[in-house]
Amino acid sequence: MNRDIFPPLQLRKPSCLPYILIAGPCSAETEEQTFETARALSQMGVCLFRASLWKPRTRPGGFEGVGEEGIPWLKRVRDELGMQVATEVATAEHISLMLASDFDTFWIGARTTSSPFAMTEIAQALEGKEVTVMVKNPINPDIELWEGALLRLWRAGLRNIAAIHRGFSLYERGQYRNPPLWQIPLELKRRHPQLTLIADPSHITGAREQIASMCQMTLEMNYDGLIIETHPTPERALSDAAQQITPKELGELISHLKPLQSSDTDSLPLKYWRAEIDLIDEQILGLLGKRMQLSREIGAFKRERDLCIVQPNRFRALLQRRLEIGKGLGLSEELVLKLFSQIHEESVHLQHHLGHDKA
Question: What is the pLDDT of residues 244-288, one digit of tens each?
C-alpha cells in the first residue's frame, strides 16, 4: 500500500504557531461557557475550536452531553468568531445533524475507533463529503484498529484526515491516566509518514499539572499538533474536570513550549525509546510498591498466627519458577537471581520490622 495516501491535514486558517493547536472544553455545557471559552482562545492562536455535544460515558448516570441543543452554540462560535469548529461524532445520526448545520470538522472518539462496525457506519455516512476528520486511537493498544479506522475513511473518499494520540486504557494505572505507549504512534508514523499526528495531553495525563510537560515531550517527538481541553472554570466542569486548564493557563503554556528543531529529527527514535523506558520503569516501581504492600499484609497475617516469617521451601519454589520465566524472556540467570533475592530480602525486612513497629 502507498505509504503516503494520507496527505498533511489542511485547516481553513493556517496556524500562527509552528504546530496545530486545537483547544476548547471537554463538553459544551452552556452557551455562555462555550462562547466565553472560544472568544478567549481565538485571541491566542487557536486554529480549531473543540467541544463535545455527545459524551460516551463508561458508566450510566454521568453527564452525557447536551446533544443537539448545543449545535446553535457551536454555530455562534463559528459565525461570530470565524473559528473552525469540531465536535465528536459516534453515529450516522450525529453526522447527519452536524452536516445539516453546515459543520464539516469532526473527530472520532477512542471508543468508536475500537469498533469496526461503528467506523463502517461513520465512513458510509461521510462518503464523498468534503470534511475534516481526526481519529483518536482506540481504547486498547491495537494499531491495526487505529489504522483500520483511518483506512475506512480514506476508502470512503475522505482525504483531509488526521490521527489523534490520546493514550491507551490499561488495567494497571501508572503515572498517567492513559499511558501513551509511544511505540504505537511511532509505528503509525512509520507506516504513513505524511499522516498528521496530533497529541492529546489532556487525556494521556488526566491531570492538568502534567499537561505542560506532556505537550513539550510530544513536540520534541515531532508531533504535528496538540489538542488541549480548556474550560473557564475547570474545577466546575461537568466532565473531565481534573484534566482541563483555563484559557489563561493555556496561553502561559504556549509561551513556554519549544517545538523540535529540524536538526533534531535524527534523534526521534531515541526520544521515543527513552520515553518508553521511563514509562516501563514507573510501572516496575508501581508494581514493586504493590508487592511490598502485600508483603506487609502477609507479615501481619503471620504475626497474628505466630507463623515463621521466612519459609525457605516457598522461596526456593518461587525462585525456580522466576528463573524459568526469565529464561523464556531472554533474561540472564544472574539478573533474575539478584533481582528476586533482593526483593525477598526486602520483604523479610518489612515483615520483621512490622512486629517491632507495633511492639
Answer: 999 999 999 999 998 876 555 566 667 777 777 887 888 888 889
Contacts of 289 (CB under 8 A, 6+ apart): none
CA distances from 229 to 12, 207, 208, 237 (A): 21, 11, 9, 11
* CA distance from start to end of the chain: 70
Give residue for cell 509505528.
187
- Residue 282 burial (CB count, 10 A): 14
Bridge partners, residue 163, by sequence: 135, 197
Cell numbers at residue 299, please? 507479615
From CA 30, how far away is CA 250, in angstroms rounded? 21
Q: What is the overall mean pLDDT for the chain? A: 91
- Rounded distance, CA 164 to CA 189, Å? 12
Closest among 338, 259, 354 to 298, alpha carbons compared? 354
| CA distances for 45 relative to 28, 98, 104, 265, 338, angstroms | 20, 25, 20, 25, 54
pLDDT in tens, 90-144: 999 999 999 999 999 999 999 999 999 999 999 999 999 999 999 999 999 999 9
Distance CA 267, CA 222 (A): 10
| Contact (Cβ atoms closer than 8 angstroms) between residue 175 and residue 142 | no
> Judging by beta carbons within 10 Å of its beta carbon (0-12, 13-18, 19+), is residue 105 exposed, middle or buried?
buried
pTM: 0.80
Report the alpha-carbon distance of residue 183 to residue 298 in Å, rounded.
38
Q: Work out the angle between the directed axes of helices 333-358 and 312-328 (0-180°, nearest 10).
A: 140
Which domains, and CATH codes, for the chain?
Answer: 20-260 (3.20.20.70), 269-358 (1.20.59.10)
Share of the chain above pLDDT 70, in %: 94
Cα–Cα distance between 187 and 242 in angstroms, integer? 30
List the one residue out of 33, 153, 63, 57 whose CA is nearest residue 110. Answer: 57
